[in-house]
Design a protein that fits this description.
alpha+beta, five-stranded antiparallel β-sheet, rod-shaped
């Protein structure tokens, strides 16, 4: 009985392997550049890593076909090389002899590409699905729209210009007011009358140096006293 089970499993495995051939229409080639991506932190590729790859592909297929119970056994790998490259195909859960169409596999990979890459610490360039163009990342939109930034800059410039005009006008007005006060003070100083001359003892009047004084009279009086 056990011999029959082993025989049936071997037959199923061989038939499945026949479905996976290099260049298969529904298959894809995978190339991994682990050393290039991770350098000194690169990990060694092993059968455990291959099992992880098959498991992530089964997850991607489940994620794409809701309700389909894809297993690791549905991901068939062949033509594996030491430079970490191989081919794979995907079979249907309810019919292991029938391959999933390559276009559906591509859609499933595109939908879960980030999850697949992160499982191996790689990106679209170092984990390459030959024939599947890498999905371009959506452009990151800034938190503030560009038009709002430009509007803010323009309004800031207008506001700064308005403040400069107001301050400049206030300074000029204050300066002009000071000039008017000085002019008024000078005019008032020129209109002040000179104080009246003081009378002398003999009753004559001597004016300031700028005025006119009776000098002859003063000299005669001085001679008479002598």
């Amino acid at each position: 009985m056990s011999g029959k089970v082993i025989f049936l499993l071997s037959v199923a495995l061989s038939s499945a392997q026949q479905l996976c051939t290099p260049g298969a229409s529904d298959g894809y080639k995978v190339r991994l550049s682990i050393q290039t991506a991770l350098g000194d932190n690169a990990y060694a590729w092993s059968q455990n890593e291959l099992f992880l790859f098959r498991a992530t592909l089964a997850f991607a297929m489940r994620n794409h076909f809701d309700g389909q119970d894809f297993q690791v056994a549905n991901i068939i790998v062949c033509d594996e090389t030491q430079r970490v490259s191989f081919w794979f195909v995907v079979t249907w859960p309810d019919d292991a002899a029938r391959l999933v169409d390559g276009s559906e596999v591509e859609l499933a990979i595109r939908k879960s590409r980030k999850r697949i890459n992160s499982a191996f610490l790689l990106n679209d360039r170092t984990l390459e699905f030959v024939g599947i163009v890498p999905t371009l990342a959506a452009p990151q939109l800034p938190a503030t729209p560009p038009w709002l930034i430009a509007f803010g800059v323009v309004m800031g410039a207008v506001g700064a210009g308005f403040v400069i005009l107001v301050v400049s006008a206030a300074v000029q007005k204050r300066r002009k007011k000071k000039e008017n006060v000085v002019d008024v003070a000078e005019d008032e100083g020129s209109d002040v009358e000179a104080p009246p001359p003081k009378p002398l003892k003999n009753g004559s009047v001597r004016q300031d140096p700028n005025g006119i004084s009776n000098v002859a009279f003063c000299d005669d009086e001085r001679v008479t006293q002598m």
